[in-house]
Design a protein that fits this description.
Layout lengths: L2 H8 L2 H29 L11 H17 L1 H11 L1 H21 L3 H28 L6 H27 L1 H4 L2 H21 L13 H16 L2 H17 L1 H4 L1 H8 L3 H10 L1 H7 L8 H5 L1 H17 L4 H21 L3 H29 L5 H5 L4 H21 L2 H12 L12 H11 L4 H12 L4 H28 L2
Helix pairs in contact: 2-6, 2-7, 2-9, 3-6, 3-21, 4-6, 4-10, 5-6, 5-9, 7-9, 7-17, 11-21, 11-25, 14-15, 17-19, 18-19, 18-25
């Protein structure tokens, strides 16, 4: 038997149950999150909510930032209360949150329901990685976490694929089915935790819950007193701000500006069956299917990319990856050619595979001996901050520079034309149709006119510039801050 086979046999049942729960949770989360920007801002006559880009950015940015901040507390609570009990609570919160999001249509109600979902995710998040840690040892941890990372991306690939098919059901008004899929995935996890999950050994504590939370927060603050760690985390906010544009902004950009029927025709010419799998009944390809190429690439070639960059210092791998990320995100937003979008996402995925896994490794590398776990606890902070700033760029900035509806309103005002305000009675689609008619253009012609007049693609300058500034910051940090402190 090979060494790999021997290691696989050493994993206990709880390891596989934990990975299965991680996969279903990722199906639920990414199944919704990849299409959420479209659901929040789409036209109400298509079953979406019709919110503005600013409202979308505010909601997604704040809620997701809170999701990544809460594990500071929820991880400590899980250690005190117990993993199994915490998972049951997490799944109850999680599933009810998705169900509420399927029902509510008022902005603040949806915001509150999404916050409830984030609470469920935050209760869940630290437990599974901790379970994987506790069910592996020195011999099995490398393969164990490799399997875990692969499972994360398998779930992240399957979820959006299913969600895309579901939302196009019922004549394009199948949004509720997306939420039902997420509810069902979490309820499967409830069955797994109740009947198959065995609590791993953990250190029992008699400390009060308030004391446990206080200690956890104090540990984070203690770690952040290390200047080199703090500077590194601040710099990495730029990476996550750029990275998250893939999910916050690109779906809207593709939906508003990219004619994906050209891409569908190209796929159909190669394989009619594949075109039917990835395409819609309108003979185009939905934005989430295109973006899902990122997760698909990770599933297919992460091991290859990791093998290539393993010889590099973590900081050099991160810098190289972010440079590639910046090129990829720029290509994805720079034109309205769907083939450039595809190339951009593929390039972006390669950069992600080089930089993202090395991020936590680098935090461990700069930690003083014996404080690795303490420092690792801070690694989610730039992720939280990055999500918050992404929300602003994807909201207010995108709305002013690139949002088709906002640019059309500007054009209508410039021409002195009269149209009713967008509302539930007069939807975005009706507004666009009426504007095209008054301006004597077809819908495709009007889209091209707005593209040529307002240059919405210029937003790529901002996104790529954030990546470039991050790279410069990391280079200066590695050359002068880290080496001067370490004396090497």
């Amino acid at each position: 038997m090979s060494k790999f086979g021997k290691v696989i046999k050493k994993f206990p049942k709880t390891f596989w149950v934990a990975n299965s729960m991680e996969m279903f949770e990722r199906v639920a989360w990414y199944g919704l999150f990849t299409v959420l920007a479209l659901y929040l801002t789409g036209s109400t006559d298509e079953g979406a909510l019709g919110f503005s880009q600013s409202e979308k950015g505010l909601m997604m940015g704040i809620v997701t930032a809170i999701l990544y901040l809460l594990p500071i507390i929820t991880g400590a609570i899980a250690d005190r209360v117990g993993y199994k009990k915490m998972l049951v609570i997490a799944y109850a919160v999680y599933s009810s949150g998705y169900l509420m999001m399927s029902i509510f249509t008022n902005y603040y109600s949806v915001f509150a329901a999404f916050l409830w979902v984030a609470l469920g995710a935050a209760l869940f998040k630290p437990i599974i990685s901790a379970t994987v840690t506790k069910t592996t040892d020195k011999e099995t941890s490398s393969i164990g976490f490799g399997i875990f990372y692969m499972i994360v991306n398998v779930g992240g690939f399957i979820g959006p694929f299913i969600a895309s098919k579901l939302r196009h059901m019922n004549d394009g008004n199948g949004w509720k089915f997306v939420f039902y899929m997420s509810v069902a995935s979490i309820l499967i996890n409830m069955i797994l935790v109740l009947f198959l999950y065995k609590e791993p050994d953990r250190e029992k504590s008699d400390k009060k819950l308030s004391e446990v939370i206080k200690n956890s927060l104090n540990n984070i603050l203690t770690a952040l007193k290390d200047t080199k760690l703090l500077i590194f985390l601040i710099i990495m906010v730029g990476f996550w701000t750029m990275f998250n544009q893939l999910f916050y902004t690109l779906p809207n950009f593709i939906d508003q500006w990219i004619d994906t029927s050209v891409l569908y025709d190209a796929v159909h010419n190669i394989s009619p069956w594949l075109a039917s799998v990835v395409g819609t009944e309108h003979h185009d390809i939905a934005p989430e299917m295109i973006i899902n190429l990122d997760a698909g690439m990770i599933v297919l070639i992460q091991v290859i990319i990791s093998t290539i960059v393993m010889r590099l210092k973590p900081v050099n791998a991160i810098i190289s990856g972010i440079i590639v990320n910046a090129i990829g995100i720029g290509l994805a937003f720079a034109t309205h050619n769907p083939f450039y979008v595809i190339i951009g996402i593929v390039v972006f995925a390669i950069g992600e595979m080089a930089s993202s896994p090395k991020f936590t490794e680098y935090v461990g590398r700069i930690a003083p001996k014996g404080k690795e776990a303490l420092y690792m606890g801070t690694s989610f902070l730039p992720v939280a901050a990055g999500n918050f700033f992404t929300g602003f760029l994807s909201g207010n900035v995108y709305q002013s520079i690139s949002d088709k509806t906002s640019l059309l309103k500007n054009e209508i005002a410039e021409r002195g034309l009269q149209l009713p305000e967008i509302s539930k009675e007069f939807t975005q689609n009706q507004y666009f149709d009426a504007a095209a008619k008054q301006m004597g253009m077809g819908k495709t012609e009007l889209t091209q006119y707005l593209w040529d007049t307002y240059h919405p693609s210029h937003i790529w300058y901002i996104f790529s510039a954030i990546g470039v500034v991050t790279v410069i910051g990391l280079f200066i940090y590695d050359k002068f801050v880290l080496k001067s402190k370490n004396g090497d």
